[in-house]
UniProtKB/TrEMBL annotation:
This is Carboxymuconolactone decarboxylase family protein. Residues 15-97 form the Carboxymuconolactone decarboxylase-like domain. The lineage of its organism: Bacteria, Bacillati, Actinomycetota, Actinomycetes, Kitasatosporales. It comes from Streptomyces gibsoniae. Coiled coil: none annotated. It holds the Pfam family CMD.
């Protein structure tokens, strides 16, 4: 998987936020040996969907696919969390997953 980083254009307005995102979150937390990148992606996608953080969700759905999760596995996780996090959250997440899956299969 390519190294993750915060969007570079944000450095102009929030250089410290980009720095800690890159150096702490992505270079440290995401690289810890306790969970695989695949498992970290599943946790991240689940939390973002459950908390209705749709702006970040699309990016992390793509990362999850890159980290080895399948569309079917992500769909199953989203279906499961519908009962715990709410139907609208799950419908938003599954709509984003479908778009990403469609874009990847067309490309």
């Amino acid at each position: 998987m390519p190294k993750q980083s915060a969007p570079g254009e944000l450095a102009a307005i929030a250089p410290k936020l980009v720095e800690v995102t890159d150096n702490v979150l992505f270079a440290d937390v995401w690289e810890r040996p306790g969970l695989s990148p695949r498992d970290r992606s599943l946790v991240t996608v689940s939390v973002l969907a459950a908390l209705y953080r749709s702006e970040q969700l699309g990016y992390h759905l793509g990362v999850a696919l890159d980290n080895g999760l399948s569309v079917e596995e992500l769909s199953e996780a989203i279906t499961h969390l519908a009962f715990y996090a709410g139907w609208p959250n799950a419908m938003t997440a599954i709509t984003q997953l479908k778009k990403i899956a469609d874009d990847r299969s067309a490309g």
